[in-house]
Write a sequence for this structure.
């Protein structure tokens, strides 16, 4: 697999509202196509967009040598509870681990809070009387007769997928492998997920929950990728299909099918990687990213040029980053992911009045079907997009490739009938209320990755993308006292560009329990050798030479007896006493930053896991992309409502290519895939890479 023999690469990002497809050649020239998503058969939008691009660009399908893909198909299967009929096989006495969870409630004072329904019903949580000790001693061997009865039970219940999670298999997987081999031999049509293959990490509930999620979505992901592969073949595209992972980096479709739990947040991860690449080219070290699309708003932090990672997250929580101190509101995923906070606040988020007559926005979304009222595709309820059309932020007429046509009258009617009239408000004030509440919801995500992490947002730059991000960016920056906002080229397709900026990436982990009294160097080097050998072998099997792979190490540390850990980088050199001292100090500094104290000097620290990330370098970087010239040009002025103290202002409208010098707001920059709103309090200019930079005007501050 030679990274330098790829004349045309494809990036396809499937969102809840729109699907974005991008082509790039060796020189970095980009062709784009944006189309409404096609639930539940999301692959249809990808294939239709590709067909249009191949026809319009005259590019031959044989010239395409790689298809990179980000999708929310697996996440949607969890949220909509439409995964496979799944069974769990576990050690006797641990049947109810899924139900006990962490005994936490995300809403502390809500006496009526109900835990999410378990993905595996109790009658399908089956026990084996085997038992392995924590030291690897076989206390009770696997009984072959039990396996036979187990097989018959699974057949009778017509189970589609099985998760196997036995006690201590993170360290001693022999029993789990035996059970897995038996089931694969006798139930070849059933998907088998072993916890030792999905997550070799201690913590019984976390390991069980992650393996169950993997089993639950595995048939769904297999079906989706198979349908996409058949569709690509019908277009005569036989290039490798690579899937973006939650932690960034691409993985082959076979690996994504085997361990789909690692690709649940693939779309949002791609956007953060594109932002990191752009920030690097601009020489920016500290950036807060805002990815606001049609369904959700997502935020992440780039600090000292590095993306932050999270050891776990929840799918289906009110805030997907969760209450970081509590949790329990969604399905736990103990898998590496880029640290992203997500809220249900996008362009398609529906505005409504609650039982008390208060104005609410989201998390319910109009999605791709029927979409906002202004799309005239059957939607009647007002959305954030409708409010932005009423305010004058979004231009009426054709959007993107003409697949959507914005109807301003329909937007006004929806806001008037459902919000303004019941509240006896002016239409513009009602629309502005929707816009501001959407901002308030989005602020939760921005604060979750900044102030809740002990970071001061005033020390960061806000980089906004997604179809709705540039519309809301200035108002959000003002709330957080962020001085500068950056809008990269093609903001509405930025996540698809991120797919093209990525190389292949694999993750692995080994649990351990090393106190300070033990020889950290000897034990860690032994673990590193095992992990490195396994990972290099995996890359070589995929066609990469050892020299093309870079390895990054990290370790999870905690004070002895703590339940929470902190992940710190490890140097690539051999572990020694000097590194031990630096690691202890780094842990103390980060613990103080997160929790406000360092604890007592004699409080022992222990290492509970060693992690390895292997990466290949992507061929193209986001900062090198050469987007096609925008077809939007200056169209005079538009009446825009900026709220207090400015009110309704006749605002100049230009295209990005028309911005040749420093301009003071108000200003609208209409684009193929979004609109950049520059309020009166800001000044704006364009750099030599095509990025729009907005800053607060000192005279207006």
């Amino acid at each position: 697999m030679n990274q330098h023999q790829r004349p045309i690469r494809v990036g396809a990002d499937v969102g809840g509202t729109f699907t974005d497809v991008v082509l790039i050649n060796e020189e970095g020239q980009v062709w784009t196509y944006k189309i409404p998503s096609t639930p539940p058969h999301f692959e249809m939008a990808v294939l239709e967009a590709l067909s249009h691009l191949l026809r319009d660009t005259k590019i031959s399908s044989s010239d395409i040598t790689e298809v990179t893909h980000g999708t929310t198909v697996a996440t949607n299967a969890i949220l909509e509870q439409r995964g496979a009929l799944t069974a769990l096989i576990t050690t006797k006495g641990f049947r109810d681990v899924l139900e006990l969870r962490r005994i936490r409630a995300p809403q502390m004072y809500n006496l009526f809070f109900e835990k999410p329904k378990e993905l595996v019903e109790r009658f399908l949580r089956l026990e084996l009387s085997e038992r392995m000790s924590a030291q690897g001693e076989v206390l009770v061997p696997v009984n072959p007769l039990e396996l036979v009865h187990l097989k018959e039970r699974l057949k009778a219940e017509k189970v589609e997928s099985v998760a196997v999670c036995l006690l201590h298999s993170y360290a001693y997987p022999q029993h789990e492998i035996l059970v897995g081999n038996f089931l694969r031999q006798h139930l070849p049509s059933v998907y088998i997920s072993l916890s030792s293959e999905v997550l070799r990490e201690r913590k019984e509930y976390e390991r069980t929950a992650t393996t169950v999620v993997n089993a639950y979505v595995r048939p769904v992901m297999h079906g989706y990728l198979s349908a996409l592969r058949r569709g690509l073949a019908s277009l005569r595209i036989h290039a490798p299909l690579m899937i973006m992972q939650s932690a960034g980096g691409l993985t082959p479709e076979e690996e994504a099918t085997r361990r789909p739990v690692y690709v649940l947040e693939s779309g949002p991860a791609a956007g953060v990687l594109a932002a990191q690449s752009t920030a690097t080219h601009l020489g920016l070290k500290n950036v807060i990213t805002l990815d606001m699309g049609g369904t959700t708003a997502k935020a992440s932090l780039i600090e000292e040029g590095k993306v932050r990672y999270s050891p776990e997250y929840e799918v289906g929580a009110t805030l997907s980053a969760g209450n970081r101190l509590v949790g329990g509101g969604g399905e736990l995923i103990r898998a590496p992911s880029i640290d992203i906070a997500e809220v249900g606040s996008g362009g398609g988020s529906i505005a409504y009045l609650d039982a008390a007559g208060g104005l609410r926005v989201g998390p319910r979304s109009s999605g791709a079907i029927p979409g906002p009222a202004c799309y005239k595709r059957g939607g009647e309820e007002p959305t954030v997009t409708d409010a932005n059309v009423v305010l004058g932020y979004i231009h009426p007429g054709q959007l993107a490739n003409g697949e959507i046509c914005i109807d301003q009258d329909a937007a006004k009617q929806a806001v008037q009938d459902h919000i303004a009239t019941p509240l006896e408000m002016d239409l513009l004030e009602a629309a502005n209320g929707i816009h501001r509440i959407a901002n308030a919801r989005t602020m939760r995500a921005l604060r979750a990755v900044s102030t809740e992490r002990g970071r001061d947002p005033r020390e960061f730059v806000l980089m906004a993308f997604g179809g709705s991000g540039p519309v809301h960016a200035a108002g959000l920056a003002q709330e957080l006292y962020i001085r500068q906002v950056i809008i990269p080229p093609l903001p509405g397709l930025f996540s698809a560009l991120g797919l093209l900026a990525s190389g292949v990436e694999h993750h692995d982990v080994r649990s351990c329990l090393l106190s300070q009294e033990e020889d950290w160097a000897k034990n860690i080097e032994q673990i590193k050798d095992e992990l490195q050998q396994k990972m290099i072998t995996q890359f070589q099997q995929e066609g990469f030479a050892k020299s093309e792979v870079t390895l990054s190490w990290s370790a999870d540390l905690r004070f002895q007896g703590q339940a929470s850990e902190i992940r710190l980088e490890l140097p690539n050199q051999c572990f020694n006493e000097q590194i031990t001292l630096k690691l202890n100090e780094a842990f103390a500094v980060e613990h103080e930053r997160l929790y406000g104290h360092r604890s007592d000097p004699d409080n022992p620290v222990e290492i509970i896991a060693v992690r390895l990330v292997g990466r290949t370098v992507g061929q193209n970087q986001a900062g090198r992309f050469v987007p096609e010239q925008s077809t939007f040009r200056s169209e005079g002025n538009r009446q825009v409502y900026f709220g207090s103290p400015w009110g309704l202002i006749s605002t100049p409208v230009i295209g990005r290519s028309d911005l040749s010098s420093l301009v003071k707001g108000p200003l609208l920059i209409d684009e193929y895939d979004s609109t950049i709103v520059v309020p009166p309090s800001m000044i704006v200019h364009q750099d030599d890479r095509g990025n729009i930079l907005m800053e607060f005007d000192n005279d207006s501050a």
In short: Confidence is low (pLDDT under 50) at residues 1-6. The first strand starts at residue 8 and ends at 14.
